[in-house]
Design goal:
Length: 189
């Protein structure tokens, strides 16, 4: 039943997105851009703001500190794999941009975190439409803690612009990007 629910929500989400595709403008992709740079900023429909304000070295690796309205996280990218780490040295693979569809792995926020997410790349190379703008080559990741009900989520990630949208599978509704600044370039959606 859980698999049926999951695929039903993916199908419904894509129907909503595809129905808006007709007159959308395509966002040009600069393959040299990395969304992990100090000063980059994202604002979402729900009011959430994310800013990369500095870098920090942990175990000899450079992490980008992301400050949000409610949390601070440390992220780094290596060979298309995006890791989330902690100042104590723990890190976990959160997104794999180069994974094949159907690939899965485990993610947890800290070493002593009892909640381990199963992450699956469910779709790749998709175009996501947000307010008549197309984000190309998006990846859709499904996050699930098997022991819980109603915490499943989908996260749309652009390899060039970062997290474009999130959706609670159980509760519905898509939280989309409203505004992004990547490498001093503003894109107001």
């Amino acid at each position: 039943m859980k698999k049926y629910k999951f695929f039903l929500f993916i199908f419904l989400a894509w129907l909503c997105i595809l129905s808006a595709c007709d007159d959308a403008d395509t966002i040009p992709v600069n393959h040299q851009t990395s969304f992990f740079n100090v000063g980059n900023y994202w604002q979402y429909e729900n009011g959430e703001e994310v800013k990369i304000d500095t870098t920090i070295s942990i175990n000899g690796l450079t992490y980008y500190r992301q400050v949000t309205n409610y949390d601070t996280t440390y992220m780094r990218i290596e060979d298309g794999k995006i890791y989330q780490g902690n100042p104590d040295g723990f890190e976990s693979l959160k997104f794999n941009i180069n994974a094949r569809e159907g690939s899965n792995w485990s993610f947890q926020y800290s070493e002593d975190d009892n909640y381990i997410y199963n992450v699956t790349l469910v779709e790749s190379n998709k175009t996501l439409v947000v307010n008549d703008h197309r984000f190309q080559n998006c990846k859709i990741f499904y996050f699930d803690i098997p022991e819980f009900a109603d915490e499943e989520s989908l996260i749309w990630v652009s390899p060039y612009y970062g997290v474009i949208a999130t959706q609670s599978v159980a509760w519905g509704g898509i939280n989309e990007l409203d505004l992004v600044i990547i490498d001093d370039q503003l894109l107001d959606l």
